[in-house]
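Ticket 4471: requesting a sanity check on a complex prediction with adenosine-5'-triphosphate. Repro inputs:
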Amino acid sequence: MEHVPMTAAQPAIVLSGIAKWYGTRDRPVHALSSTDLSVGEGEFVVLLGPSGCGKTTLLRMVGGLIAPTSGRLTVEGQLLWQGEQRRPEAVSELGMVFQDANLFPWLSIEDNIALPLELKGMARAERRMKAHELCRLVGIGGFERRWPRELSGGMRQRAAIARALSYDPKILLMDEPFGALDAMTRDAMNLELQSIWMDTGKTIILVTHSISEAVFLADRIVLLSPRPGKIDTIVDVPIPRPRRSDVQSMAAFQDIALALRQRLAAIS
Amino acid sequence: MSDLAPVGTPPSDVLARRQGLREGLLPWITTPILLGALIGLWHAYVKWSGISHFILPAPADVWTEWLRLMTNPRGWNHTYWTLYATLAGFGWAIIIGVGLGVAIARVRWLELTLNPFIVATQVIPKVALVPLFVVWFGFGVTSKVIVAAVLAFFPILTNTVLGVKSIDEGHRDVMTSLNATRWQIFRRLELPSALPYIITGLEVGIVLAIIGAIVGEYLGGNLGLGRMLIERMNAFEMDEMFAILIHMSMLGFLLYFSIGILRRLLIPWHGSARR
Ligand SMILES: Nc1ncnc2c1ncn2[C@@H]1O[C@H](COP(=O)(O)OP(=O)(O)OP(=O)(O)O)[C@@H](O)[C@H]1O
Ligand SMILES: [Mg+2]
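Returned structure tokens:
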């Protein structure tokens, strides 16, 4: 499959002048200063940066979970925030995956995955079928009837990804989805995420602390710097797809990783 | 894996199952033994100490009386009324406790407004109010239902509030990002999430409800096990009084046990429902 980033007529997500202040007990925190960013249809963008630089803040604003203090944010051409008010029709194309899988412990794996479909009123049999299909896609086939607590951390995270995929949103927002996993599992999950992305052609924004994860997955890496959070540099990753786990030893990969590491050291 | 295990060791899944079985069976063996020992002790004490029959009857006599109670339609009628007052009061306590609990946990000003009153009604010794209820609501079953409800209400309310407040923020985020309606959030997140807490409240509440019903019966009317017990006591029929006491305890045990079953049925996913 050929992947063509950034050529679609209309970008999937556009942030113009988006800024966030948190009101706290003493004085307001400037979490993100005025930010402009445009994410193309089908593009894989990774947000990278030191702790506290506003990655989660940015992602949660795009995901419709917290209102920006100022600026304009559109998703698939639709305005997402009308002041503090979220416009529900703009959220329908968004799927979120959090750092914790956030599965509901009272639902079986298949019911967790099908939860979005249930909320949308899909019939039970149809939901079940879709959930089974997704379980196979993310590699947890055969665990449909288990409780979340009976799965390992990596398997739960796969289920969370399947849940976000279930209603086929055009955009996936992922906040350190593999942060809690060991290096081996993480590499495997990265490979799988890449293939899911290539198969489905979704737009993905993923937050990570890991430089190698960023270079492995991204079309573009957005490097953020803290206090207040802002975009420091944007790095293109022109490594061809599909990338295999051994790209890590390629010169191009190592050059990008090194440049990022130096820049990160400078801004932290 | 299996060829690494020592010869003669069953596979680990068999061991795990066996351990589960052992733990499941243990109370079925130890409880009767302990119970038997206690009754034996009771029997021996009555026999050797020469204690008056009017203070402590022998277990065998109590047993005979209990059998008579069980075959006596009057006994069952009293049991029915006690059970009725307990369950009706408990039902009201659930409706009001859970309803108010959810509202209080969600609406901050409601909590701030009602909290002093709820605490006040709790620190008043409610059992002391029973005579007042009898004056207000008569000697019939209504006053017993109300006493049972008032006693059972508080633990159900506080546990519901705690349950709804303890909902994981990450779970809320999931529902918000899925554009769930208020009703969907209640039905699919808040209710199941608070259920383990609510059931814990029910477990405490059901025991208080039966206490409430019986205390209500002590003080007025001519129905229920509480009434029956007072009558027997006034007649110095200690065998029968003890039989009724044991009957009451078993009723309480049965009700408490039913909530345990409810726990397993409603929240099989929760750690507390596992053995
Ligand atoms: N709810 C909040 N109230 C007040 N301040 C907040 C809140 N959430 C975040 N902040 C502040 O905003 C800044 C950015 O936080 P954010 O969580 O977006 O960082 P991050 O880049 O995701 O960090 P990490 O990599 O550690 O997850 C931090 O200084 C943080 O203290
Ligand atoms: Mg974060």
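Notes from triage: The first helix of chain A runs from residue 55 to 62. Leaving this open until the requester confirms.
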